[in-house]
């Protein structure tokens, strides 16, 4: 007779230590972080090449909002030869607005405009 012995094969670590398994193994990401990420990646759509592919990967795997903040200058450097410096700067200015309220003040995030 077998008494409720956990098997290593087919069991999760949570099951072995007697805890309930989490409902999902997928990470739940902040929607605003993903909105910023999508906007940055969208700015690269329609372009190809090694630098574009590399920038796309860096944006996709940036772990947090601070990492995306610091990737803005690299994104501008990637876009400038493709679209021209003025257009690349406008894209970065639009992306920068999406960071409002998401970063600590020490990082240098743009401040929200005071309500009049």
Polypeptide structure, described:
- This protein is mainly alpha-helical.
- The protein has a domain at 31-99.
- It has six helices and no strands.
- α5 (72-83) packs antiparallel against α6.
- The longest helix has 13 residues, at 85-97.
SSE blueprint:
Blueprint: H1 13-16, H2 31-42, H3 50-60, H4 65-70, H5 72-83, H6 85-97
Helix pairs in contact: 5-6
Defining key terms:
50% helix; mainly alpha; 116 residues; 6 helices
Major beta-sheet overview: none
Order of helices and strands: HHHHHH
How far apart the termini lie comes to 76 Å
What is the helical fraction, as a range of percent?
40-55%
Structural class category:
mainly alpha
- Radius of gyration using CA atoms only: 21 Å
Count of helical stretches: 6
- Overall number of strands: 0
Instruction: Return the average pLDDT rounded to an integer.
Output: 79
Briefly, what is this?
The protein has 116 residues and is mostly helical. It has helices at residues 13-16, 31-42, 50-60, 65-70, 72-83, 85-97. Helix content is 50%, strand content 0%.
């Amino acid at each position: 007779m077998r008494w409720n012995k956990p098997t290593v094969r087919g069991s999760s670590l949570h099951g072995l230590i007697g805890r309930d398994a989490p409902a999902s193994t997928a990470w739940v990401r902040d929607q605003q972080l993903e909105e910023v990420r999508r906007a940055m990646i969208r700015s690269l759509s329609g372009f190809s090449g090694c630098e574009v592919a590399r920038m796309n990967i860096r944006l996709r795997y940036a772990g947090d909002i601070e990492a995306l903040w610091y990737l803005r200058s690299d994104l501008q450097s990637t876009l400038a030869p493709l679209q021209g410096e003025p257009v690349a700067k406008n894209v970065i200015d639009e992306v920068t607005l999406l960071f409002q309220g998401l970063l600590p003040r020490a990082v240098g995030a743009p401040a929200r405009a005071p309500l009049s």
